[in-house]
Specification:
Blueprint: E1 22-28, E2 39-44, E3 47-53, E4 59-62, E5 68-75, E6 81-83, E7 87-91, E8 97-99, E9 102-105, E10 111-117, H1 126-132, E11 140-146, H2 154-157, E12 162-165, H3 174-186, E13 190-194, E14 220-222, E15 233-236, E16 252-254, E17 261-263, E18 268-273, E19 278-284, E20 290-294, E21 304-306, H4 308-320
Parallel strand pairs: 1-8, 1-9, 10-11, 10-12, 12-13, 13-20
Antiparallel strand pairs: 1-4, 2-3, 2-5, 5-7, 6-9, 14-17, 15-16, 15-18, 16-21, 18-19, 19-20
């Protein structure tokens, strides 16, 4: 308390940070310095629902936002780019308190990818094979992790924008790994699942303990108790839906190690195999995380031909564009 004579009293200012319901965040440059007067729009499709500019501390705030899926889209100053380019947010109740932070830089946004696999130790080299699919991709860094006896840890996972998860063989610790990756998703991480992930689901009929809580948010489930098929197939071109996941995808064949999955009701399927089994599908979760499923073994090698590299790079680039966990 400060007592002053009313004739000479000076105002007392106290800094207050609002932490209630709404969509808010901070925009900084690459060194962490707050950026003021940056235009920020809250979008639904092509419609601007709210707009504003950042304060001197780089923060913005939209309150009283109705339930729904939105995109937060900042306009970077000058020739800089903002990373990520946008963030998907889902306002699900009047008490939703959502944070969407961004940073700017003068070069293209960096995507950090972690390739995670597990199963038969004889196939540990699969992660190296998959890593080679992304060799030379600009602004993309990759690291491979094969499960032996410990999960990577949430602190490690949170350093990556995207986790590409697959398996080659069953392993009892898949549930613990799935629980940890689900925690990563809740922090804003993005996940791509691939064959033989579905053989390790608890509904595969193969005796797997499953992927724990991750199974509640993955786009595809196992079909016919297998989670993959050894029969050959090709891309059903007429099934392709225009989307960044299918850009440049024109031909694809596989002798096996693919398909035999079912899309969940909330999943958007953008490409199918010739037997009508889903090939590529996705969901955007309430926190904005992008969940992608590709029913093809990423380490297929010569067993898969056509626009294979295009398919996997599309998946990583689209998932990574949403940005990873917010620091």
């Amino acid at each position: 308390m400060r007592v002053q004579d009313s004739s000479i009293a000076t105002p007392v200012a106290l800094g207050v940070r609002y932490t209630g319901p709404g969509v808010r965040g901070r925009i900084t440059n690459s060194t962490g310095t707050p950026l003021a007067n940056v235009a920020v729009a809250l979008m639904q499709g092509n419609s601007i629902i709210r707009s504003g500019t950042t304060e001197t501390d780089g923060t913005y705030l939209f309150v009283g936002v109705a339930n729904g899926l939105y995109q937060v889209l900042p306009t970077p100053p000058g020739t800089q780019v903002v990373c990520p380019a946008l963030r998907n947010v889902n306002v699900s109740s009047a008490t939703s308190s959502i944070i969407a932070d961004f940073s700017t830089q003068t070069t293209a946004c960096q995507i950090d990818l972690l390739i995670v696999s597990g199963g038969d130790l004889a196939f540990a080299g699969d992660t190296t094979t998959v890593k080679a699919l992304f060799s030379g991709v600009p602004n993309l860094t990759t690291r491979a992790f094969f499960f032996l006896n410990n999960t990577p840890g949430l602190n490690v996972l949170s350093q990556y924008d995207v986790v590409l998860l697959f398996a080659n063989g069953l392993f009892n610790q898949s549930a613990a790994l799935g629980d940890e990756i689900e925690d990563y998703v809740q922090l804003g991480g993005n996940v791509i699942t691939a064959t033989f992930y579905w053989q390790n689901r608890s509904d595969s009929g193969l005796g797997s303990p499953g992927w724990g809580s991750l199974e509640a948010i993955d786009p595809f489930t196992s079909f016919s108790g297998t989670g993959q098929t050894y029969t050959a197939s090709s891309l059903n071109v007429s099934s392709i839906v225009a989307h960044p996941l299918t850009t440049g995808l024109a031909t694809l064949t596989s002798t096996g190690f693919r398909g035999s999955v079912t899309a969940k009701a909330a999943t958007s399927v953008v490409a199918r195999w010739s037997d009508n089994s889903p090939l590529v599908g996705y969901q955007v979760l309430p926190q904005g995380s992008r969940m992608v499923a590709v029913s093809l073994f990423p380490a297929s090698g010569a067993a898969a031909t056509g626009d294979v590299t295009t398919l996997w790079r599309n998946a990583v680039n689209w998932a990574g564009a949403a940005g990873g966990p917010i620091p």
